[in-house]
Amino acid sequence: MRVAVLSDVHGNVPALDAVLEDMARQSFDAVVCLGDHVSGPIDPAGAAERIMALGAISIRGNHDRWVLDPSRRAEPWSVDVFARECLGAAHLDWLGSLPATASVGDAVFLCHGTPADDEAAWLDNFYNGRTTVLPSEAEVAREAVGIVHPVILCGHTHIARTLRLPDGRLIANPGSVGMQLVRGTPDAHYAVIEKRRGGWQTMLIGVPYDAEAAARMAEANGFPGWGEAIRFGWAGPETLG
């Protein structure tokens, strides 16, 4: 079994197109999308159209909830408001239909943050400026209690990482397709998980694309902080809005 894993597209169509082109040269039994699909200042509607057309198993992220109703956030994020204004009724209906979690058979469990909370960071604590501290083994394992699938996929932090729990379960974060932060890469990121004779393995993939064009689109839409983050991949989340 071979599964392509996408997360955190954030409306970045040039990045998504590069990932889809890379995927087109391969074969997969399933494609999964882990949320935060459209919240970004580039092309929210275009991202929605492409993901809807994939036939992927998709779940919602915290920004998907906020795009549907920006007032759910104490201080509505301007880019969530922008994204909602770009979407049509069919896009919003699709976004509203997405579940918080899902699975691929009995093998793979999907969540955005943790199984219980789409705003919680899991494999990496969220950034303090440009730094983050890795959680302990006990903290990571606690969030996986009750999940019996041998593979658990999460997103949200935009940091590509994979680990194994002591019982052998694999947890993987593919990183972000459309918004790179603090790690110094502008490339679009996704993952491939595959079951082979020795068990499940992960490939974390970075795909170069025209990040300069994407940055200029964000800036033209009034979001200069996004332009800086997309162009270089070093900015922290505090630069976004």
TrEMBL record:
Pfam families: Metallophos_2. SUPFAM superfamilies: Metallo-dependent phosphatases. It comes from the Bacteria. GO terms for cellular component: cytoplasm. One of its GO terms (molecular function) is phosphatase activity. Residues 1-194 form the Calcineurin-like phosphoesterase domain. Coiled coil: none annotated. InterPro entries: Ap4A_hydrolase (IPR050126), Calcineurin-like_PHP_lpxH (IPR024654), Metallo-depent_PP-like (IPR029052), Pesterase_MJ0912 (IPR011152). Belongs to the metallophosphoesterase superfamily. YfcE family. This is Metallophosphatase family protein.
